[in-house]
Amino acid sequence: MALFGNLFSSDKKESLDKGLEKSKESFFGKLGKALVGKSTVDDEVLDNLEEILVSSDVGVTTTLKIIERIQQRVARDKYLGTSELDRILKEEVAGLLSENNTDNIEEFETPAGKKPYVIMVVGVNGVGKTTTIGKLSAQFTKKGKKVLLGAADTFRAAAVDQLKLWGERVGVPVIAKGMNTDPSAVAYDAVQAGVDQNVDVIIIDTAGRLHTKVNLMAELTKIKRVMQKVIPDAPHEVLLVLDGSTGQNAMIQAREFTKATEVTALAITKLDGTAKGGVVIGISDEFKIPVKYIGVGEKVGDLQTFNRTEFVDSLFRRNGG
């Protein structure tokens, strides 16, 4: 799967391979046991594959879709050897991601004619939201873009302080008013400052309190409304950050946040610390929201723009294969 090889550096690929290692080892370890003594893809193999995909946090609904597609290929091709299963699996999962609007996107680019490009970031505490914003800032800056941050998660003092630290670290200004201030006022000031300073990207952090979903919905709606006083079509992107290591819990968070506000893109973090990498496939399929970024390590460069071709290749390629 080298179709996008020229767009995907060897360093990035190496980072992706390493970040998905636990998921890959878990998957192929289980698959190897299921295929012992088997030469053809029969009902027993498919039943075992179904169980393995579900246990890899792909999700039941998405797993059934994948199994059905493989069954159709088995019926069409009459004879499929287990040696071909890896390739077929890659093709069907990549096809599924493509149908779900998860494309191979350009690295840290913003649409032409959208300046400043406003990103509102949502997600519960602990998923790596503020860290993701910091890494995004660094990546956009590296691409030569002028970035400004708005610390509108005023519910937690730690969130404001952490964002300020990231701002200092990557040389990006942060608009902040401290804890317990009106988040929409922070967002308004940040967008206005971004326009005044002619920045390319404005990233607004917001509080994530799912246990008060009605209040969260009202707060996010208000933040959007005040930003639109400055830029009528802001925010251009609502980015939901999810912790991939929580598996099906990330699915639940996505379900709740998509009820509370319109989400247009996903960032799935902490994939390097888990064997639950399959959750990326399930979330993309269930919500039909493009996965835009994935986190596969601690370093700034380990926050990657999502490339479905390379992701599937890394996740479903045996070591040395």
Architecture overview:
- This protein has helices spanning 10-19, 21-34, 43-55, 60-77, 85-99, 129-142, 157-170, 183-196, 213-227, 248-260, 279-287, 308-315; strands spanning 117-122, 147-152, 174-175, 201-206, 237-243, 265-269, 291-295, 303-305.
- 46% of the residues are buried.
- 49% of the residues lie in helices and 12% in strands.
- An 8-stranded mixed sheet has the order 3-2-4-1-5-6-7-8, sandwiched between helices.
- The model is unreliable at 1-7 (pLDDT under 50).
- The longest helix has 18 residues, at 60-77.
- With 321 residues, it is of the alpha/beta class.
- Strand 6, helix 11 (279-287) and strand 7 form a beta-alpha-beta unit.
- It is elongated, with a radius of gyration of 21 Å.
- The chain starts with 9 loop residues before the first helix and ends in a 6-residue tail after the last helix.
- Belongs to the GTP-binding SRP family. FtsY subfamily.
Quick tags:
alpha/beta, single chain, 321 residues, disordered N terminus, 12% strand, 8-stranded mixed beta sheet, 12 helices
Indicate the percent of residues in helices. Answer: 40-55%
Low-confidence stretches: 1-7
Overall mean pLDDT = 87
**N-to-C terminal Cα separation, in Å?**
12 Å
Order of helices and strands: HHHHHEHEHEHEHEHEHEEH
Structural class of the helix and strand makeup?
alpha/beta
- DSSP summary: helix tally: 12
Order of strands in the sheet with most strands: 3-2-4-1-5-6-7-8
Rg, Cα atoms, Å: 21 Å
Number of strands: 8
Provide the fold topology.
Layout: H1 10-19, H2 21-34, H3 43-55, H4 60-77, H5 85-99, E1 117-122, H6 129-142, E2 147-152, H7 157-170, E3 174-175, H8 183-196, E4 201-206, H9 213-227, E5 237-243, H10 248-260, E6 265-269, H11 279-287, E7 291-295, E8 303-305, H12 308-315
Parallel strand pairs: 1-4, 1-5, 2-3, 2-4, 5-6, 6-7
Antiparallel strand pairs: 7-8
